[in-house]
Amino acid sequence: MRVVIDVHCHLTDDSFINDLEEVIVRAKRAGVICIITSVIRAREIPRAEEIVGKYRGYVYLSVGCDPTVFDYREIEELMSYVERKLPEVIAIGEVGLDYFLVRDHILREVQKSNFIKWIELANRVDRPLVIHSRSAGKYAIEILMGRAKVPVVMHAYDGGVSHAEKAAEKGFYFSIPPTVVTSDQKQKLVKVLPLENLLLESDAPVLSPKRGVRNEPANIAIAVRKIAEIKGVGVEKVIEVTTENAKRIFRLRL
Ligand SMILES: [Zn+2]
User: Fold this and answer.
1) Are 59 and 37 in contact (CB under 8 A)?
2) Which residue ranges form the domains of the chain, and what is each CATH number?
3) How remote is the CA of residue 38 from the centroid of ligand 1, in Å?
4) How far is the CA of 88 from the centre of ligand 1 (A)?
5) Backbone CA torsion sign across 93, 98, 101, 106
6) pLDDT (tens digit, 9 = 90+) per residue, 10-36?
7) How far is the CA of 9 from the centre of ligand 1 (A)?
8) Of 50, 45, 40, whose CA–CA distance to 84 is shortest?
């Protein structure tokens, strides 16, 4: 039945080192036709190249930086990698703000200025942005508004629903992880946002539908059923709209 796209996960994570092949097989069986894996540390680059090389045409690459990284050399390394590796890099992300882990005001200012540099890079290389905004949804949206000239995907957004609604009106997208089966906030988000603004992501290995268990791309099928139920539409409709969104935003020719 289904052909879904996982727009955000981390296949370079060590937890996939021993059984990535089976993870990919299960994803394909669940109807996942494309996976976008996100590199957020410079040390992940060799493994990401290996994976993208092995699963060419199935796994695509997004490059950003963990917002809790403050080492400017690493940030520069990741940014110059993006410039060097276009067109293989199909998106910038995840990048953004993390106010859950970073509480210090001065560090938050540095985080903001790093975030703006990533937005400017995305504009320059014309790639969509995938945004991390843990406990900082409202602030990330504020920074993006007016600055981002490319499509914006708020990934695993945990902020207020009213801010999300305003962002959606401005054309922002929201990718919904499998935790939608248990999270009230995610369910509320799905309820208020138009289906036209939604995408699917696993964020594997985290955000599993079952707590404490490693997540994997195949699980986005679980999110699809929940979204269909919340929206009161058929599963097919959710698949159709989210897949078309992903193809258009990430310019995927599948
Ligand atoms: Zn992530």
Assistant:
1) yes
2) 4-249 (3.20.20.140)
3) 7
4) 19
5) positive
6) 999 999 999 999 999 999 999 999 999
7) 6
8) 45
